[in-house]
Structure formats: structure tokens, C-alpha cells
Amino acid sequence: MRFSTTTLLISALGWITAVAGHNIQLKAHSRECFHETLHKDDKMTVSFQVGDREFGGSGNLEIDFWVEDPLKNRQYYRQAVSSEDYSFTAHTDGKYIYCFSNEGWTSNSKEVSFNVHGIVYVPEHELAQDPLEAEVRRLSDALAQVKDEQSYIVVRERVHRNTAESTNARVKWWSIFQLAVLIGEGIFQVWWLKRFFETSACVPNPSRVPILAPFGSSTLCPLGSGERWELRALPLGCQVSTITFLTACVAVLGTLALVGLGVLLGRLWEFGKKARERGGVQFTKCVRQKLQRWWIRRGRSGVGDAEEEGYERGPAESEPLLG
């Protein structure tokens, strides 16, 4: 008999509290509207979360949301939101409309997961005084909240997963692009340096008129120059001037200097990181002592041997701070 009473209470509770969960696909430049027929003093709650099932769709997840009363007046309007939880009490009988709009945003489609809670107003003299029924009602409300939170967590997990996958894809393609650029640059530099330092034996040319030779053949020198070595950077015998040669040397040296600077900055960054981990004050003291000992060994300080030995026997030597 007790089981039958509980079943009847839960069935009766379904007429008082109604919960509905929905998932819709909101296409680009479109809107979706729904309506609920309410009576005066009925309560209604609409909660939603915007997500995207598409891979890499971690961009704009914002939509417009509004609620209209039976008189077609917007009693609530929010623009550019990705989640919302709105509750209101019906001030008159009629049809209340709530809309989700993706009209003013980007061309990607968005998935909207929303829940609608409706509580029918019941006068106090009609409410059951049974404490078991009241407890079941509170339990139903708690379960509805748990379900809403679960739906919210599912959508958020999907959004975060899409964001992570999109980031991984972009990092992958950027790494491939960098690798291709480095390989191409290396091949070009090898080819350029090889062509730059190629040599060709020249012979005198009394008429000083260049002879059209086949592709890749050597050039001819002016009258009286004898046989000498010439630098050639391009095919068809085009010679290289001194300015071009010096420019290439400066470019190569500059590249090496930049690489060395990058390595030095990396070592300094690691050194500073270790310093922060071991404590700033202790690290500074240790560095000062090591610099002083180095200066003493160089013989450029007036500090005596006793002080030098004092530094050698200092407490800082008991712990190798710098490794």
C-alpha cells in the first residue's frame, strides 16, 4: 500500500512540475522559436548552453536570446551569450515565446542544448499537507537540477575538446610549414654557396667581346689579364662583384650571430629558471662570492690571501648552488 501511495504522489507531481530537455542545430543566419502556454502566476525557467559538434568549430559560440509575452513585447533580451539561465513568472495568461537567433553571427552552425522548467501555480489551500509529498517534490527538483548540470557539463566538455583538437591541428600544420621553410632555406643556401664559390679558368680575349658559350660554360677575361679565378653566382657566366660577395658574407655571419644569440638566450632562460627555483637571495650571494673569488685569482683585487681563503671556507661552499 505504501508503494502505491508513493507512485500516486510521483504521478501527481508530474502535473505540477514539468521538465523538458532539447537539442537543436542552429544553422547560420537562422533562428528557432518555441512557445509555452502559461497561466497567470505560473513559473518558467529556460536554461541553455551553446556548443558545436564539428571538428575545429571552437570559434564564436555566441547567440541572441529573448523572451516575448503574449502581447509580443520582449520582456527579456540578451545579445551575444553562450549560456543563460532565465526564470520568470507569467503576469497574464497566454502564449510565451522564447527564441534562439544566429542571424547576426558567423557562417558556422551551432548546437543549442536547452532545458525548460515549468511550475504550475497551485493555491495554498489546494496543496497537499502530506510531508511525504513535499519531500518527493523537493527530490524531483533536486534531480532536475542534477540533470541540468549534467547536460551543461556534457556540452562544455564537447566545446573544450573541439578547442583542444583545433589547437593541435593548427600547431601541427604550423610545424609542418616551419619544417618546409627550413628545408627550403637550407637547400637554397647550399645551392647559393656552391654556385657562389664555383671557379672558372679565363683566357685572354683581344677583342674584349664576350663569346656566347653554352649554358654553364666559363667566361672570358679582358685583354692582358692572363689566366685567373673568377667568382660566379649565376649560370651563363655572370660574374659577381665585390659588393655582392661582401653582402653575402655579412648575411651568413648575421645568420650565425642570430643563431648564437638564440642559443645564448635559451641558456640564460634556463639559468634564470634555476635561480628562481633555488631562491633569489641565496643565489645572489653565491654569485657574488664566486665573482669575488674569480677576481682574486685574476690578481686584480687588493683583497689578501686570508680573505680569499675565507671565501674558500665560507658557508656557501657547503652547498653547490650553481651545480
Automatic annotation (TrEMBL):
Keywords: Membrane, Signal, Transmembrane, Transmembrane helix. The chain crosses the membrane at residues 245-269. Residues 1-21 form the signal peptide. It is found in: Endomembrane system; Membrane. It holds the Pfam family EMP24_GP25L. GO terms for cellular component: endomembrane system; membrane. Residues 31-118 form the GOLD domain. It is a single-pass membrane protein; Single-pass type I membrane protein. SMART domains: EMP24_GP25L. Belongs to the EMP24/GP25L family. This is GOLD domain-containing protein.
